[in-house]
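Standup notes
- DV: blocked on the single-chain target, sequence here:
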Amino acid sequence: MHKHALFEGFTRTIGAVAIVAWFFVGVFTEVLQALGLVEGLVWGASTSGVEGGMFVGTTFLLAADLLQLLVLDMGPL
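- DV (later): unblocked, structure below
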């Protein structure tokens, strides 16, 4: 019974989008760790005095830029 619901979820667009997004987040996390970006962000924030919401906002913008470089600038698949 549960496996039927699972396979039915895979065939729906929203289910497929959620699964692909989940896999992509895993890959993106590995890329961030491999590049050492997280450690660099923390170091840069601590040396420049950025804290709280400003740190979160800066991190979000930098991650969005990196995501655009990695995914959107790849060209057609």
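- Follow-up: Residues 36-77 form one domain.
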